């Protein structure tokens, strides 16, 4: 049976994925050298398409890693000498904080319970924090932080580096990269690709910080995928080590497809599908949206409390050919998570709602 | 035009690759959760097949990273408090040494010119070196170190951790994992897969070292893919972060294919094809093997000096549908590198030799 995956990543593959993969195989892209002109063209194309899609200016470079989790480490090693600051309201924002501690950074924490979100006005950032880690979409709880709040915070704390985790929402959030120094995502979420590639966007301010830290004997910015090395190779659209060439090619192709649709349309469709799901839950006596505040409700990962055992809902959906995500961790029993990525259409979301009604 | 890639990685895809990829797409493996039973079965299968193929005992775990280059960093962070020791005779063995320095380890160096190899008898390892980094196959120069020499060294320095770079030779070298503490490779070489997955084999001695270092405030073993976290997840065939699920599946399938052929046959064929290439060069007045000592000649990456410009040979081969590798770095003008991986058959090597004769 062929399923439709409404899981928050790995997720449903983008409808054009299989055709692009076939082209890549026909063109033997799995065998080409990562030091060839052909690869540099692929990197350049993906770079151009992502810039167009997400409005990334020339001040920022676009780099590839093995995963977004790897970026947590690269970012903390390269942009923090002593202190970082983290808004934490779920498992993934917490993992970034945990990484900072494992790397012996002094990590400041502003934490809220699962399901609650952050507004700019309530956030106080300690004086010596060098890097501010924000999460646009906390995948575990389905909570978003609005870009306008992120931008406000950066204006208030202009001297600090601001980084946005957009792992399970890119390219949806409309970030102003004249304010956001760094952002990152992985491809198995809203880009509808198999896992195995992380994307790290970082500006010259991040690079300068990394170059400064690199001169210190007292700490290391890492040897693999450190920012100065990534940046240097990026000047000729190369990578320090052999990257996931196929993944970079496929990402460029899917970004091109999304550009053809237009990012505004992609965003509107995302909001339309999210509205359908939240409205359905609000009008139902068997589901309720987990996140109370409407402004904090994620547009890309919809988390609902279930009246009965979540497992029953998931099983029923599966029998109809739809895989929905379980609640995260301890909330497995009483929650479901529905990914609302560009790979699933308004019609497919309607179908899912019909099945959930039964 | 469909080419045969004799490049030392990325390289020719293994003949069964496309069929396995199709199965993976049909089974929607690009969308499955890395926390699902299905993924754990995939990890278990790949683990079993690699163990059978490379004779890896239960004392060693098998972990996945984004690349083999990433493993250099993980290994040095997790297994070295102060000092490492490196046998260097080319660009890749040197990169590991460079990584050690970037991580502020005190890295001891025993270096030889490109094209020369190491024997056990000539190697003196400093007293305080904790980790010994050996390269089975130096891809840049086509030089191998024989496993028997590696085993001898370990017997002499039994208290030190021994690690083998088998990036461009695995599963060819017959390592005795009762002596070798750790080894690593990437999949775009002899396993005939697209790049984007590294494999790290490490034993309990490595784990114990990492656990000890993890308790120190004065250094970090890294936050992402550190050995204790990899090992903990490995107990249930999981990974700390979302891995390259598709790559792990495909690696297991190709390892299974190689097991069906039998590792002894794979090794014999490799040696047969290498013998054909070296004999041809020795009998030719236009090519000479770069590596003088027969015992140091790589079985998996054959490097030849060309009489005329290497570019001419490469162009002529390309017109016949064969892509051969250029010499590494400055040797681009006067050398060619021919990958001799299981993906190319005796017949294909014969064809290549015919073309090179012209």
From TrEMBL, chains A, B:
GO terms for biological process: glycine biosynthetic process, by transamination of glyoxylate; L-serine biosynthetic process; pyridoxine biosynthetic process. It comes from the Bacteria. It holds the Pfam family Aminotran_5. Keywords: Amino-acid biosynthesis, Aminotransferase, Cytoplasm, Pyridoxal phosphate, Pyridoxine biosynthesis, Serine biosynthesis, Transferase. The keyword Cytoplasm applies. Its EC number is 2.6.1.52. Its cofactor is pyridoxal 5'-phosphate. Residues 31-327 form the Aminotransferase class V domain. Pathway: Amino-acid biosynthesis; L-serine biosynthesis; L-serine from 3-phospho-D-glycerate: step 2/3. Gene3D superfamilies: Aspartate Aminotransferase, domain 1, Type I PLP-dependent aspartate aminotransferase-like (Major domain). Belongs to the class-V pyridoxal-phosphate-dependent aminotransferase family. SerC subfamily. It catalyses: 4-(phosphooxy)-L-threonine + 2-oxoglutarate = (R)-3-hydroxy-2-oxo-4-phosphooxybutanoate + L-glutamate; O-phospho-L-serine + 2-oxoglutarate = 3-phosphooxypyruvate + L-glutamate. This is phosphoserine transaminase. InterPro entries: Aminotrans_V_dom, Pser_aminoTfrase, PyrdxlP-dep_Trfase, PyrdxlP-dep_Trfase_major, PyrdxlP-dep_Trfase_small. One of its GO terms (molecular function) is O-phospho-L-serine:2-oxoglutarate aminotransferase activity. The lineage of its organism: Bacteria, Pseudomonadati, Bacteroidota, Cytophagia, Cytophagales.
């Amino acid at each position: 049976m062929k399923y439709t995956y409404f899981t928050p990543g790995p997720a449903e593959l983008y409808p054009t994925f299989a055709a692009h993969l076939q082209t890549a195989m026909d063109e033997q892209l799995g065998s080409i050298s990562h030091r060839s002109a052909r690869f540099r063209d692929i990197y350049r194309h993906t770079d151009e398409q992502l810039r167009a899609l997400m409005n990334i200016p020339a001040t920022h470079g676009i780099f590839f890693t093995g995963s977004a989790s790897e970026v947590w480490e690269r970012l903390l090693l390269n942009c923090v000498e002593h202190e970082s600051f983290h808004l934490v309201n779920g498992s993934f924002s917490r993992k970034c904080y945990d990484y900072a501690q494992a790397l012996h950074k002094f990590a400041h924490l502003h934490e809220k319970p699962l399901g609650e979100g952050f507004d700019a006005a309530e956030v106080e950032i300690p004086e010596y924090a060098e890097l501010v880690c924000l999460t646009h979409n906390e995948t575990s709880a389905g909570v978003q932080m609005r870009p306008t709040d992120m931008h406000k915070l950066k204006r208030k704390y202009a001297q600090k580096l601001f980084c946005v985790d957009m792992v399970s929402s890119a390219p949806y959030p409309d970030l102003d990269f004249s304010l956001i120094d760094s952002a990152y995502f992985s491809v198995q979420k809203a880009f509808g690709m198999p896992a195995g590639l992380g994307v790290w966007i970082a500006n010259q301010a991040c690079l300068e910080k990394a170059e400064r830290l690199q001169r210190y004997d007292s700490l290391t910015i890492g040897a693999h995928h450190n920012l100065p090395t990534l940046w240097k190779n990026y000047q000729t659209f190369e990578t320090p080590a052999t990257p996931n060439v196929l993944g970079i090619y496929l990402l460029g192709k899917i970004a091109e497809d999304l550009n053809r649709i237009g990012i505004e349309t992609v965003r509107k469709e995302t909001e339309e599908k999210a509205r359908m799901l939240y409205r359905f839950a609000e009008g139902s006596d068997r589901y309720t949206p987990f996140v109370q505040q409407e402004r904090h409700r994620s547009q890309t990962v919809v988390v609902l409390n279930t009246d009965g055992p979540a497992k029953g809902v998931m099983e029923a959906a599966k029998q109809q050919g739809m895989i929905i995500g379980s609640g995260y961790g301890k909330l497995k029993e009483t929650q479901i998570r529905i990914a609302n990525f560009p790979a699933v259409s308004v019609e497919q979301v309607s179908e899912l709602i019909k099945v959930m009604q039964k």
